Amino acid sequence: MENRDARRLGRQVGVIGLGCWQLGADWGRVDEADALAVLHAAADSGVTFFDTADVYGDGRSEQLVGRFLRERGDAAITVATKMGRRVGQTPANYTRDNFLAWNDRSRANLGVDTLDLVQLHCPPTPVYSSDEVFDTLDEMVEAGRVAAYGVSVETTEEALTAIARPGVASVQIILNALRLKPLERVLPAAADAGVAIVARVPLASGLLSGKYRRDTAFGADDHRSFNRNGEAFDVGETFSGVPYEVGLEAVDRLRGLVPEGATMAQFALRWVVDQPGVTVVIPGARNAEQARANSAAADLAPLTSHDRVRAVYDELVRPLVHDRW
């Protein structure tokens, strides 16, 4: 698999990683054996970047990744985790004492002394402008608690504020064929600063897999049921904030662009990989077959249909989402 790096991140990672939200919660139940099979299948396919968070299953995802690390024993693997979503989302909760406690818990869950990368997990917007927050993160690097830190953001303005901080190594942001705004300013700014871009929700919560229909039903414990309108967290995290029926229409128009021998999901992942400035894209997977198929998207040739993807976005999606995030 192609490896990419970014100056501030200080390490190379496979261009397709694995998002581990599904292994914790909010996507329907994934049992432990299946979760470990997903992790090992991804690694066997060349994945070296695994993204989790302390809030996914209240630590379950981190613990599973920690077990995988012990079974794997592979020094080339990078694990990124996130912190901050297990408390009320007010800036007052983003304190030094809380950061140290969250860090201790994640290190215990993962079974490591030093976290490869810790990311603020879509905190309230004022947090990105807090000198105290970033002074504490710098302190954690100096103490060897974390090797590097970054941020996960909802909006492009949050991303740009974070990139301006000299210690920020990575920005995780939603980027897919139904969410093009980061291409305008965020990716060029990150490339200029040497900041890694971690592209999340690349399949728009599965919409861009091409498998869903208007009558597809999602379980009650799946965020695609309970967060359609942002009831639990930012609505942009579910189907990229695109109304489900509009997303289905967009996908129908994109189907004809999929290269022969590739799946719709692989096409969507390759589209992200093609974007200048992207370091790693982190699709999720619920079984080993999905993990292997996602990884194989790295083997596709660069796409020649970017203008046609943009045309679909401009007509159907831009009016609904472009100015929101």
UniProtKB/TrEMBL annotation:
Keywords associated with the record: Oxidoreductase
InterPro entries in the cross-refs: AKR_Detox_Biosynth, NAD(P)_OxRdtase_dom_sf, NADP_OxRdtase_dom
Occurrences of domain NADP-dependent oxidoreductase (ranges): 16-306
Top-level lineage group: Bacteria
Keyword check for Ion transport: no
Pfam families: Aldo_ket_red
Protein name (database record): Aryl-alcohol dehydrogenase-like predicted oxidoreductase
